[in-house]
Amino acid sequence: MNTVQLAAAMYQCRDAARTLLGVHYARDMDLWAQTIRLEAERLKCSELAAALRMSRETPDGFRTIVILAAAVEMSEPGTQAT
Prior knowledge:
Layout: H1 3-21, H2 25-43, H3 47-57, H4 61-75
């Protein structure tokens, strides 16, 4: 998967998470962003690299979606739709 395809998939995850989480979206994104930041510190890597690693290691499809959605929100704060 090239960079453009990865970015498109991550944006799709954000849209899916926004739909699935509804009113809990912003809260959950904040919580996942904290988790991603801690993992990036622990692994001594970028937040994006930590999020991608976390998403690959989880067996839970929904969790994968929200991790990647949080990574998008971390890179583009304030793009959360209401």
